[in-house]
Write a structure and sequence with these properties.
Oligomer: single chain
Distance between the termini: 29 Å
Strand order of the largest sheet: 1-2-9-4-7
CATH topology of one domain: Jelly Rolls
Number of helices: 0
InterPro entries: Cupin_2 (IPR013096), RmlC-like_jellyroll (IPR014710), RmlC_Cupin_sf (IPR011051)
Structural class: mainly beta
Low-confidence stretches: none
Protein name: Cupin type-2 domain-containing protein
Strand content: over 45%
CATH class of one domain: Mainly Beta
CATH architecture of one domain: Sandwich
Shape: globular
Organism: Bremerella alba
Mean pLDDT: 87
Largest sheet: 5 strands, antiparallel
CATH superfamily of one domain: Jelly Rolls
Helix content: under 10%
Number of strands: 9
């Protein structure tokens, strides 16, 4: 039996990642999508919905993250889970990096 395919990917930020909101797909399959999202201080993403359950981990910086209109602050080490298609928005208070894991609905 062959081992599962593995690939090492850097998730920490890189200086060149900061500019306008930048998202980088780190892993993509039919069951999961992992994205590194880099935002400069004061950048924001308007309300939107993910196509399935979403886990957000703050790796660097500090953001205001609103879910269904209820704001909360995320900082390094914080983890947040959203149900499928919950409305959410993000506003970077500092240069920030988030790791997003989405499990698209079938």
């Amino acid at each position: 039996m062959e081992p599962a395919s593995t690939q090492t990917t850097m998730i920490r930020s890189l200086k060149e990642d900061f500019g306008p909101v930048r998202s980088t797909v780190l892993f993509l399959s039919d069951r999961m999508k992992v994205v590194r999202l880099s935002l400069q201080a004061e950048e924001a993403l308007k309300e939107h919905r993910a196509p399935g359950p979403l886990v957000v981990q703050c790796l660097e910086g500090k953001v205001d993250f609103s879910v269904e209109g209820h704001p909360r602050q995320l900082q390094p080490g914080d983890l947040l889970h959203l149900a499928s298609r919950e409305t959410h928005a993000v506003h970077a208070l500092e240069d920030s990096v988030l790791l997003l894991t989405i499990a698209p609905d079938k």
